Every structure is written in C-alpha cells, then in structure tokens.
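This week, work through this protein record:
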Amino acid sequence: MPEGYVRELVHPGVRAKMHCLSKAEEVGQLVKVRCGYCNVTHFYRPGDIVQLVGDLTILELDGSFRCSRCGKKEAVNATLVLPSAAERMTMTVRHLVKIRSVRVPVWKDVRG
C-alpha cells in the first residue's frame, strides 16, 4: 500500500479482504511508522500493536501514532512491510516491554 494512501477512497469490499495485524504477525510482516515532517522511521511487531489498540487493518491503524521526535500526529503514516532476512538483520525493531497505566484524579467541588 503506498504511503499517503487515503482511507476513505478504499471500497468496503476491498477493506473487508485486507488482513489484520494478527495475520501480519503470522506472515512475518512489520509495521513501519514514518513521520513525513521530521523523516523518522520506526518498525514495530504487529503483535505488540494488537496488545495496545486491538486487531485492526493497516488502514484503521493509520493516523493512530504520534511522532516520538516532533509530536505531530497528522504527518505520521503506518504501512506494513515484509523485510527480507538480510534486511531484518540490520533493522532496529521496537518491542513492547510493558504497558503503564497512569492514574489521574478528577475532582469535583461540592459545598456542604
């Protein structure tokens, strides 16, 4: 799928035939996330992404990331890639270590 692909232009029948992140994990694909603004690229395992957002297609995942360098969300594009064994040896892939939940209190003022 080309970078910058518009989600709304995909026919629903085509979208239904696209495989999800769990299938991409079985095949050995990686999720390539690239910021078009600052030109930073990171690779993730699809199984790690499934733990965070659920089993989505790549079109549904596109736009869910924020750039780790500039913080912009609108310039980030996610695609699936299938690297060769030689490419995989030289790649740096981000692995999910843990999910940390942040508890934020919400207060309400009540008289009496």
